[in-house]
Write a structure and sequence with these properties.
Helices cover 64% and strands 2% of the residues. The chain has 565 residues and is mostly helical. The chain has a domain of 180 residues. It has a two-stranded antiparallel ribbon with strand order 1-2. A two-stranded antiparallel ribbon has the order 3-4. α10 crosses α12.
Length: 565
């Protein structure tokens, strides 16, 4: 590790935080209906959908509206992928996807996971990329942010049933937040060398005299929303490692900025909606702290180099550069990896399969902690608020009083629902992994033996249930078993998680908001931030440390012993 490397990391994080402050204020204004510069378009959309934006919905109505729009999105995307071979805008002549792969891909993009069991440039047409995948990138991101706004209102209001109007929140987030940011970032990507064209693929002759096909396409603007919406599904198969998707370090820095800025900003939005900006800052401090620690752990692990290669006489000065790009270097790889897995983005600029065992464990554990550090757009905030409720419950047990959070008493109903939500991830991750490593037709997808093979399977279901979408690599995932079970894990991680969260929001909104007193536990200072971080770590460790011990931790000690599988 070098001082210059840390300076790069600090600069990107500083720029992200500098943008998150005004963006958080702006999103709060959007949520309150105070941003109106696209009001004519907004009004047309409401009339077309028969929506009255002033009519509030309780948690059940809000959740049903969310499920309805995502069900329609799934059906449309599934149909496009199944028929892309006969639809227009297909200059490369790609064939239609199989039913299994189309199901997995449609679920993946609807749930904001964007797991890809295919290579984008050879398996998806231009129409599928634009009208299918890119559109769903906007819709799934808008869904997450809308849900976060609804949950935030539950802490601001007292004695009410309504959490807002899903259709209004969904429309405003898309029009006023995601579309403008994506347009600006997309133009920047075009200027920096990412293609945005309808031209067909180019065939050229290499220096060796062989023919090579160079894929092109309308990539830049899809890549912009892929990062801003923490979607992660790349236009090209190797994602940001592709020279067209990640042409230089400046683009990489902008991609890191894009995948972290909205999750960070939403913490400050929560503070403004709840009426106490300090509450949002406390949540933000926990998120940023975990990102910095995770970045440092990845950077240190990969900079140390592979001891097996060092023993063979390879100079360890460059660190472990297998699966990485010299254009980015270890600092931006470490920060990119920490933010993309912590932020539920799933985009990659390095191959995790080539990381050293502990370096590869960090992104896996970040997802297993609940995708709240900082989490996906919207989902990270409402996931963090679930942990905040558990933290004040633990604090209440310590001092023997009824826990409160922002003036709302946290009682048995909320804690039961919170634990139901928290248990979704380990149930899906560990359950599917346990079955898949012993079932022959599933275990045959594993490429490597020993602990590394377990890590491949464990990471796949971790990524799916955590709605992250990144892959550890080495796993053959385009099989009926993997496509179906990973799809189910994605659905559980998104919708089975959010339903109890919305039920919590409905219960809290109905409660009267008590004024803060001398006996109230302060939830805006370092003590609460430390307690919150501790609860997240302890829950994650209790749930996943045994499986990690059999995978990356066992592989680490095997490597130190000079053995390989």
């Amino acid at each position: 590790m070098t001082l210059l490397g840390w300076a790069q990391i600090a600069l990107v994080l500083a720029l992200t935080m500098a943008a998150a402050v005004p963006l958080g204020r702006y999103i709060a204004a959007v949520a309150g209906g105070r941003v109106t510069w696209l009001r004519p378009i907004e009004a047309v959309l409401y009339r077309a959908g028969g929506v009255d934006p002033r009519r509030g919905q309780d948690w059940k109505g809000y959740a049903l509206a969310m499920l309805a729009v995502n069900a329609v999105g799934f059906l449309l995307l599934f149909g496009i992928l199944r028929l892309q071979g006969v639809l227009p805008l297909n200059p490369a002549g790609v064939s239609s996807m199989s039913s299994w792969l189309a199901f997995n891909t449609a679920v993946s993009f609807v749930t904001n996971t964007n797991w890809q069991a295919y290579s984008g440039e050879v398996a998806a047409s231009y129409l599928s990329q634009m009208a299918g995948l890119a559109v769903q990138n906007f819709l799934s991101a808008s869904t997450g942010i809308a849900l976060a706004l609804a949950v935030s209102r539950a802490f601001a209001r007292g004695g009410v049933q309504e959490l807002g109007n899903f259709w209004a929140d969904f429309t405003r987030v898309t029009l006023y937040v995601l579309l403008p940011l994506s347009a600006v970032l997309g133009l920047a990507f075009v200027a920096l060398g990412i293609p945005q064209t309808f031209a067909g693929y180019v065939t050229t002759t290499t220096l060796e005299g062989a023919e090579q096909t160079i894929p092109l396409g309308p990539a830049a603007f899809q890549i912009a929303i892929k990062h801003l919406g923490t979607n992660g599904g790349g236009f090209f198969g190797v994602n940001a490692l592709h020279p067209f998707e990640g042409p230089n370090a400046i683009v990489t820095a902008l991609q890191i900025w894009g995948q972290a800025v909205i999750p960070f900003a939403l913490c400050l939005t929560f503070g403004r909606i709840a009426g106490d900006i300090r509450q949002g800052r406390a949540l933000l401090a926990v998120m940023v702290g975990f990102v910095v620690v995770a970045t440092a752990a990845i950077y240190a692990s990969e900079a140390a180099g592979n001891p097996l290669l060092t023993a063979l006489g390879v100079d360890p000065a460059m660190g472990n550069m297998e699966g990485k790009d010299l254009r980015f270097g270890l600092p931006l790889v470490a920060l990119f990896t920490a933010t993309t897995t912590g932020a539920s983005c799933g985009a990659v600029n390095a191959m995790f399969d080539s990381f050293l065992p502990l370096g590869g464990m960090v992104p896996m554990f970040l997802i297993q902690l609940g995708e709240v550090l900082p989490g996906g757009v919207g989902s990270g905030l409402y996931g963090m608020l679930v942990f905040a409720l558990l933290a004040v419950f633990v604090a209440g047990l310590m001092v023997g009083r009824t826990p409160e959070y922002l003036g709302k008493k946290v009682q048995a109903r909320e804690i039961k629902l919170a634990m139901l939500a928290v248990l979704i991830l380990p149930t899906a991750i560990l359950g599917f992994t346990a079955v898949s490593v012993v079932l022959p037709m599933a275990a045959s997808s594993i490429q490597d033996g020993g602990p590394h093979g377990l890590s491949e399977m464990l990471y796949a279901y971790t990524s799916a249930a955590g709605n992250n979408g990144s892959a550890f690599g080495g796993l053959t995932s385009d099989t009926p078993w993997m496509n179906v079970t990973l799809g189910i894990a994605m659905l559980l991680g998104r919708f089975a998680y959010v339903i109890p969260v919305m039920a919590i929001a409905g219960a809290l909104a109905a409660k009267a908001k008590a004024p803060e007193s001398a006996g109230s536990f302060p939830t805006h200072g370092p003590l609460f931030a430390g307690l919150l971080a501790g609860v997240i770590l302890i829950l994650g460790g209790l749930q996943f440390l045994p499986s990690l011990s059999l995978g990356p931790i066992a592989e680490h000690f095997t490597m130190l012993a000079g053995k390989t599988f």
